[in-house]
Amino acid sequence: MEEGLRERKKRETRQRIADVAMGLFLQRGFDNVTVAEVARAADVSVNTVFNYFRTKEDMFLDRSEETEDLLARAVRERRAGETAVEAVRRDFFEALDAGDWRYGMSEGLDLFTQRVRESLALQSRVRMLEVNREDRLARTLAEETDADPDDLTPRLVAAQICAAVRTLTRHFAMRQTAGEDAALIRADVREHAERAFDLLEHGIGDYCPRPEP
């Protein structure tokens, strides 16, 4: 349906507040910026800010809803004959090649990560985001496979997929924080990601055997 004028204005106002807030957070640090300062910079009232964002953390993580649903959506929208891991793998590499933000493989992730590390409130919120993302993926896997409520398989699979994605994202952020060239980082992440998704697809049963004496 075509977006109405009222809805468009509300969306634009929300986006403007989020953009202004993120600019201030990245420049000065999350804990050093108040909601009142964000409101002044965005030319709105404090009440208006809270109409769109329940907390200051919501402004920093304004894409949290999309991020939490990212993996579950990839599974829901998978192609015919495509497994859950194959769908996430395809989506991951599409984002990596495009430099898209959704898997944290974009420019500026280093400063974003630094701001999170500086704030206990943001660290707690990011951990909750990761928990919610895994939970959404597990519920989607259970629905898509019509799993029994007592079947732990959807949660086990979701935990492994989320762990792989989280590890790859952190590796990218660590390399970027060290000042390495983005193109070189992506090439390195691609190699690690191929291995990570291979492990997800084929299992880890033959990994790390003790050598025979």
From TrEMBL:
One Pfam short name: TetR_C_14
Domain HTH tetR-type: 11-71
DNA-binding region: 34-53
Entry keyword set: DNA-binding, Transcription, Transcription regulation
Origin superkingdom: Bacteria
Annotated protein name in UniProt: TetR/AcrR family transcriptional regulator
Organism: Microbispora hainanensis
